[in-house]
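Colleagues,

For the teaching module next term, I've prepared a clean inverse folding example: a structure given as tokens, and then the sequence designed for it. I'd like students to try predicting residues themselves before seeing the answer, so please don't circulate the second half yet.
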């Protein structure tokens, strides 16, 4: 059982790992310590990272290359289901595999991946979604026994890993955008679906002034449109609504 040596304690003892090489070594050491085959960190929706995604894994190079060359990120059942979850996903809880999903897992096993996996979705302060997954080849009873009482600690481990990865790529200290009182009020009305004209009447401003505030807000939030600004404000709880 994993509880004999908490995963979160392993992470707490490795806070010095900050470079890409050190993080990669951490992945290998983690798998060896907990008798797992692979560990993967995959930020699939990361607005604070250039390109929007970030992957660290000790999967075989052949599988990583094969995965993206075949566009498997578009049909990967783990990605699809974990995106809509707040709790850990045991891969054996996935719906029955048919068609492309069945082919995907068969192909993965041919590249050396195990049949068992556990994924924790992490939703962070920048609106990002990161998935932390472990993979192993074992028996069903052994897999169940390994996780008995260990999932809460693995979830905490995943969060610690997420924060460490953000520190390693220099995003964890990125300041949270601060809106002025007037800008926050404009956004509160925008969230409620009010137009610039409506907002101007409600706030006793001119429509031109409201547009000025919206431009400032978009610049601060690093988005292109008011719709995107609304989405980020709601997603990241930037103002009281």
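(Answer key — instructors only)
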């Amino acid at each position: 059982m994993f509880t004999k040596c908490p995963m979160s304690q392993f992470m707490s003892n490795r806070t010095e790992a900050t470079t890409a090489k050190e993080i990669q070594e951490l992945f290998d050491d983690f798998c060896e310590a907990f008798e797992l085959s692979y560990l993967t960190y995959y930020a699939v929706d990361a607005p604070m990272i250039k390109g929007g995604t970030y992957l660290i894994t000790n999967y075989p190079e052949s599988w990583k290359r094969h995965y993206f060359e075949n566009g498997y990120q578009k049909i990967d059942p783990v990605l699809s289901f974990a995106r809509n979850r707040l709790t850990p996903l045991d891969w054996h809880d996935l719906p029955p595999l048919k068609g492309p999903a069945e082919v995907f897992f068969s192909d993965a096993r041919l590249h050396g991946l195990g049949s068992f996996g556990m994924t924790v979705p992490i939703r962070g302060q920048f609106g990002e979604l990161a998935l932390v997954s472990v993979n192993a080849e074992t028996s069903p009873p052994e897999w169940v026994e390994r996780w008995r009482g260990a999932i809460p600690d693995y979830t905490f481990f995943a969060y610690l890993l997420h924060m460490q990865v953000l520190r390693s790529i220099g995003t964890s200290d990125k300041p949270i955008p601060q809106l002025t009182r007037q800008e926050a009020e404009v956004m509160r009305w925008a969230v409620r679906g009010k137009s610039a004209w409506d907002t101007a009447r409600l706030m006793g401003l001119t429509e031109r002034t409201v547009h000025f505030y919206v431009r400032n807000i978009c610049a601060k939030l690093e988005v292109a449109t008011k719709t995107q600004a609304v989405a980020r404000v709601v997603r990241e709880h930037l103002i009281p609504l």
